[in-house]
Amino acid sequence: MTRPIGRRAMLRAIGGGACLTVACSLAWPPRKASAAPGDRLNAMISVAGDGTVTVSAPPTEMGQGVHTLLVGLVAEELEIDPADARVQAAPVAPAFENRYYGTMVTGGSTSAIAWFEPFRIAGAAARHMLVAAAAERWGIDPTGCEAAAGRIRNRTSGDILPYGVLAAAASRLQPPTEVGLKPRSAWRVLGRPMRRHEGPQKLAGSAVFGIDLQVPGMLVGTIRHSPVIGGNLRSVDPGPAVRRVPSAQVVPLEDAVAVLAPSFWEASRALEALQPDWDPGPNAGLDSAAIGASLDAALGRRGALVAEHGDAAQADAEILKRLDLRFEVPLLAHAPLEPLSATVSIGPDGVDAWAPTQSQTAARDAIAARLGVPPAAVRIHTTLAGGSFGRNLQVAHMVETALTARAAGRPVKLIWSREEDLRHDFYRPPAATAITIGLDRDGRPVSWQQRLAVPDLRRAPAEIPADPPASVDPTAVEGAAPFPYDVSHHRLTWHDAGIPVPMGWWRSVGHSYNAWFVEHAFDIAARASGRDPVALRLAMLANRPRHAAVLRADRDLWPQPPAAGRFRGTALHASFGSIVAQSVEISMQGDRPVLHRATCAIDCGMALDPDATRAQMEGGMIFGLSAALYGEITVRNGRVQQQNFDQYRLLSLRDTPEIDVTIVDSDADLGGVGEAGVPPIAPALCNAILAATGRPTFRLPIHRRNG
Amino acid sequence: MQLSVNGALHEIKSSADTPLLWVLRDELGLTGTKYGCGKGICGACTVHLEGSAIPACTVAAADVQGLAIVTIEGLVPAGQIHPVQQAWLDAGVSQCGYCQPGMIMAVAALLRANPNPTDADLANNIGVQCRCGTYPRVIRALRTMVGR
């Protein structure tokens, strides 16, 4: 991930009317805002005549608490109570592009990092202009004014003017060319636990998610795709659907059929009656064994060098013993609790699309291209997301909804069934690795040679992988390098694997398997040498003080040794700019681990909202535990076998351990927290099982269906 | 067909076999009750039927005629907040929030039946699935409510 290499803010105030709106564009090299003056589209903050402050949020709120954080950033500098601000989802506009990607997208745990400065700058600029407007009205110098709690106070006279009264006058002023931001020591909102902005609506059931959307005159639909992955629809007779539900409308699509009706239930019943004729395409014989064989084949190819450091010959001279280990992880589904949905209305003045999308720009462009309209004619309205974890980075379902709405000539809300959601995901790719660890006479790893087979997410799944690949897919290898431990020789190669299944970015992406590969292999090596895995890590982290501090902070959450029959495992992993150590204590009930307590230490630079950081660690660990214990998508005859939560199990409250999280404050750059909590828990758990039973885990999930 | 939802009788046009969930959502516009699995597994659609928590996705509308149905929208009168909701706010439970109406309905029903549940009671009775992993806070919020 890139880092900003310079900073320069451009501020714009948009005048006219009784509303002060402020936009800020922060980019390097400095980029002119492209919206014309007077265009409110780019407004990050608006202060209305009644004093209402509205924050336009570029990132999608999916549970990570980003709307709350944006309000906090604005409130800190604008000097308002966060509870008094409103949030609206930002439209697609240049000012709202995530600067790490150059597009409007919520991903890579970048939201807090990308928006930390722009929203504080916009808040400070708005406050500056309100102060200037008050000073002008009072005929005093701005230094005689003080902003607090949504009002300006005249320090001399004690007079008070609320922001709303000043908004119109402030909007006619030039925005400042430079603003100072509060030092961290003066923060009153940031760095403290915040109340979730949309929390009350969520608990009252009034929060609007994608599937809750209502548009006048809309039909509700549901969809079924070719049961064989990659297959297409040859034809479908609408008769059976219409006979069962007379109002049903059948819309054939390229690789799917949608059915529309006044309600989801009617649409579902009608869809069940259909007997589409599918062309299964090239994958009719695909199964999980073939996927495993593809990973093996990839490991046998040359591959591309990702990273190498140290001296192989020197390491060879030190090696007393070698360990050859092979690990493999399966396809995984995102399975957000809110099934996929989108709503599209096509009118004479353009196309409106509502969805809990993480990829607003891509959605707009894809819909525009398929409908043959200019991108500017497509308006994306982002709803709250009922989870997502990367699923809504994909936009194909929004295009399908648009095509269905066009065919129906009416607004359409398309909701996927859970079965469709699990069988037609863009899955977390499967991966395999072969690691050769050389141990010296003290049992310390001195050589780490790793071959990593993962499909390249940048190419179409059906394409044949090149050998060697022309370049390295950064998300495939993230987390396997840089190698944090001090060894004499480290070498990582990546081998593109041909897996003809739709795949995508799943919470923590490459880190989700690479942390497990490296950190479980580390414990296997440590135990093979009779070394304490945590002590050995610390001994090999002399050049990584932040890593070591996090590992110690996690260890300090366990002042007592484990009781009889209890066993612990620990893992450490850096991802998304944060460093996380996690431990879990288990006992074994036969072959099954019982989870008693888990801990987590995180260094994310500074925690802008410590409570949200803890929540993301807790949730990330549970997400990781579901995958480690149960997560597995299997394929047979080209069909995904898991159809619902009885076959794609999630961790339940009953199986959840106590979780303690500690935050290690550091002066490092801001790190992301939405994904960094996921990777270490799987190796921590497998390391605990290794401690308990002496048995390594070579394939996930721990409870495998297929032996 | 008539259904009693949140204290009011509603004339229902949906077919008798329609699951209560979709009558609530698509006919009555009560979208606080969520669809998660359609099979009674995940609990996102939990409502109260005569005071007990049930999944609304697997019960046909015809089978609950004459019985008192309460959804998240009717848990407390408008403008009020239920003690479970308050405890949830204080403990910062919700993340994406999608499962939370079902979670709150399940916990509210448990507390009505057993005002002083243990952790084990909670584990054995609250099967609502939370993909965000808010369980530790669900447990903490409930412990606070019952003074543990």
Automatic annotation (TrEMBL), chain A:
Pfam families in alphabetical order: MoCoBD_1 (PF02738), MoCoBD_2 (PF20256)
Domain Aldehyde oxidase/xanthine dehydrogenase a/b hammerhead: 204-282
Single Gene Ontology MF annotation: oxidoreductase activity
Gene3D superfamilies listed in its UniProt record: Aldehyde oxidase/xanthine dehydrogenase, a/b hammerhead (3.90.1170.50), Aldehyde oxidase/xanthine dehydrogenase, molybdopterin binding domain (3.30.365.10)
Listed name of the protein: Aldehyde oxidase
Organism: Thalassobaculum fulvum
From TrEMBL, chain B:
Protein name stated in the entry: (2Fe-2S)-binding protein
Record Pfam families: Fer2 (PF00111), Fer2_2 (PF01799)
GO molecular function: 2 iron, 2 sulfur cluster binding; metal ion binding; oxidoreductase activity
Domain 2Fe-2S ferredoxin-type, chain residue ranges per copy: 1-75
Keyword Iron: yes
SUPFAM superfamilies per record: 2Fe-2S ferredoxin-like, CO dehydrogenase ISP C-domain like
Key words, A-Z: 2Fe-2S, Iron, Iron-sulfur, Metal-binding, Oxidoreductase
